[in-house]
Amino acid sequence: MVSALEFPKSSVIQTYTLMAARRVVVFPSSAELGPVLAQLVISRATKAISSHGRFTLGLSGGSLVSILSKELLALPDLDCSKWVVGFCDERLVSFDDPESTYGLYKSQLFSKINIPDSGILTINSSLPVNECAEDYTRKLKEAFPDDDFPVFDLLLLGMGPDGHTCSLFPDHPLLEEAKKIVAPISDSPKPPPQRVTMTFPVVNSARCVAFVSTGGSKATVLKGVLEGSEGPAFPAARVVPTSGELFWLVDDPAAASLTIQVERPGSGTKL
Ligand SMILES: O=C1O[C@H](COP(=O)(O)O)[C@@H](O)[C@H](O)[C@H]1O
């Protein structure tokens, strides 16, 4: 019998080829990135609905909210009646607080599309943070009854200038969370301090994960995440879907320090 330590090199190579191929796609600015992001959402939605009757989408907050909302609303005949939307992370504030990710999507997107209320999985922001995470875990389990960890068709992620993604921050114990679907955090270094977040097992179970990262403030960390020898030091570098696709959609200012080979799409690019 061959022990794990004795695997021949060829098996190791094979293991890595089973992992998702990462595609880094660079656009001159978010004006060119936005339509391709919207097209990615629609293509994965169409595929998901024809294969299993619904499209499950995980949304992040921050700069993604306005980029995504604007581009989706520009599409003709957008039909979201079979969408189920969750939040990759959420800040524990009331929905009318400007920091609420749900609140922002509600005013910029959900109120303008035909997604059913039952298709939007929100936190209960009136609960204490631990109970809020448990309540949101229950909602996700109900929405994904067949999965140990929910398998989303598409997760859209952002990355902060410190390399955080979702509400998974550098050097935080939550980076090692292996059992929970959703975790509470009370000491977020970025305000507000109380949040709930999907964990890496959920993120890495998705069928497709796409980061959207724009602006010069992301250039140094993007190089560290995509090219660095720091390995998983940056939370965003730990996003490696087990068998799903991984895209990095970035603009020129964010990509300014990269030396790896990237894709530079022309007009009409499809992902
Ligand atoms: O706090 C958060 O920040 C990240 C990154 O946001 P960005 O504005 O730098 O793009 C975001 O992905 C996350 O959902 C949010 O809670």
Topology:
Blueprint: H1 9-18, E1 22-27, H2 30-52, E2 55-59, H3 64-73, E3 83-87, E4 89-91, H4 101-108, H5 129-143, E5 154-157, E6 182-185, E7 195-198, H6 200-203, E8 208-213, H7 219-227, E9 245-251, H8 252-255
Parallel strand pairs: 1-9, 2-3, 2-5, 5-8, 8-9
Antiparallel strand pairs: 4-7, 6-7
Helix pairs in contact: 2-3, 3-4
The protein binds the ligand O=C1O[C@H](COP(=O)(O)O)[C@@H](O)[C@H](O)[C@H]1O.
The ligand O=C1O[C@H](COP(=O)(O)O)[C@@H](O)[C@H](O)[C@H]1O binds next to loops.
What does the model show?
Belongs to the glucosamine/galactosamine-6-phosphate isomerase family. 6-phosphogluconolactonase subfamily. It is an enzyme of class 3 (hydrolase). It catalyses: 6-phospho-D-glucono-1,5-lactone + H2O = 6-phospho-D-gluconate + H(+). Pathway: Carbohydrate degradation; pentose phosphate pathway; D-ribulose 5-phosphate from D-glucose 6-phosphate (oxidative stage): step 2/3. Helix 3 runs parallel beside helix 4. The chain has eight helices and nine strands. It has a single domain, classed as Rossmann fold (3-Layer(aba) Sandwich), CATH 3.40.50.1360. By secondary structure, the chain is an alpha/beta fold. It is globular. Helix 3 links the parallel strand 2 and strand 3. The strands form two sheets. The chain has a six-stranded parallel beta sheet with strand order 1-9-8-5-2-3. Strands 4-7-6 form a three-stranded antiparallel beta sheet.
